Amino acid sequence: MISSISLKQTTGSLAVVILLLIAFIGGCDTKSAVETAAGSPDSIAEVSHRAVVFKELVASNREDDNSITDLSFIDTNGDTVALKSFEGKQNVLLVFTRGFSGMLCPFCTTQTSRLIANYDEFKKRNTEVLLVYPGSTDQLPEFQQASRESTDLDAFPFPVLLDEDLAAVKKLGIAAHLAFPSTFLIDRMGNVRLSYVGSSPSDRPSIKALLEQIDAIPPN
């Protein structure tokens, strides 16, 4: 059980991350944004959202067994969200951002904005999007310093979750400075259909690629 102090710190840090994300994605051209090649230079400070192109063709680049569904995260209310709670109900698109280390990664914010813009397409396919932000409660002062005021948390149609102290990141072996950008597609029976770990900040599946992966799931 999370103590009240720890819970306050955890939800506070996650809320600030959401504030930052909304502030950054607010000006993105989400649906019509032109997607740089995934192998483009990763000079974070110089990246334009509209210049970002993610991979159109993807396949699993590692193997993960169904134990991935044992993972759980913390939502903005401080409640635990377990992947197993979706079994028998919905597919899950589990998206790990790189985390926060003093600035937000423009590839993360671009990816987030496109997931938001196309969320209805995922809903049509009975797929819930879970956006995971790896972070440590020790980063709370840095989060607060970088946060912006006035935003609308309802801008996110899907859950934004905190991987507190990178517990899931470490278990999955995707730790980098914080985390490699990673995407996992789990069908409603708990089977892993896609495991994709990016080799660089820009190496991520496009929306088109993700929808194609979902469409390829055999009917249960």
Structural overview:
- GO terms for molecular function: thioredoxin peroxidase activity.
- The chain is an alpha/beta fold.
- It has 6 helices and 7 strands, in the order αβββααβαβαββα.
- The protein starts with a helix and ends in a 5-residue tail after the last helix.
- The chain has one domain (4-215): Glutaredoxin, CATH 3.40.30.
- The model is unreliable at 1-8, 26-47 and 140-153 (pLDDT under 50).
- The protein has helices at 4-25, 106-117, 119-124, 140-146, 167-172, 207-215, and strands at 72-74, 80-82, 91-96, 127-135, 160-164, 182-186, 192-197.
- α1 crosses α2 and α1 runs parallel beside α4.
In a few lines, what is going on in this structure?
With 220 residues, the protein is α/β, with parallel strands linked by helices. It contains six helices and seven strands. The protein has one domain: Glutaredoxin.
Secondary structure: elements and pairs:
Layout (H helix, E strand, L loop, with lengths): L3 H22 L46 E3 L5 E3 L8 E6 L9 H12 L1 H6 L2 E9 L4 H7 L13 E5 L2 H6 L9 E5 L5 E6 L9 H9 L5
Parallel strand pairs: 3-4, 4-5
Antiparallel strand pairs: 1-2, 3-6, 6-7
Helix pairs in contact: 1-2, 1-4
Lateral strand order in the biggest sheet: 5-4-3-6-7
Fraction of helical residues: 25-40%
How many β-strand stretches?
7
Order of helical and strand elements: HEEEHHEHEHEEH
Which CATH class? Answer: Alpha Beta
Between the first and last Cα atoms, what is the distance in angstroms? 36 Å
Number of domains: 1
Number of helices, counting only DSSP H or I runs of 4 residues or more: 6
Query: Which CATH architecture would you pick?
Result: 3-Layer(aba) Sandwich
Main beta-sheet annotation: 5 strands, mixed
Low-confidence stretches are: 1-8, 26-47, 140-153
Overall mean pLDDT: 77
The CATH superfamily appears as Glutaredoxin
Question: In CATH terms, what is the fold-level topology?
Answer: Glutaredoxin
Structure classification? alpha/beta
Rg computed from alpha carbons, rounded to a whole number of angstroms: 16 Å
- Beta percentage is 15-25%
Shape descriptor: globular
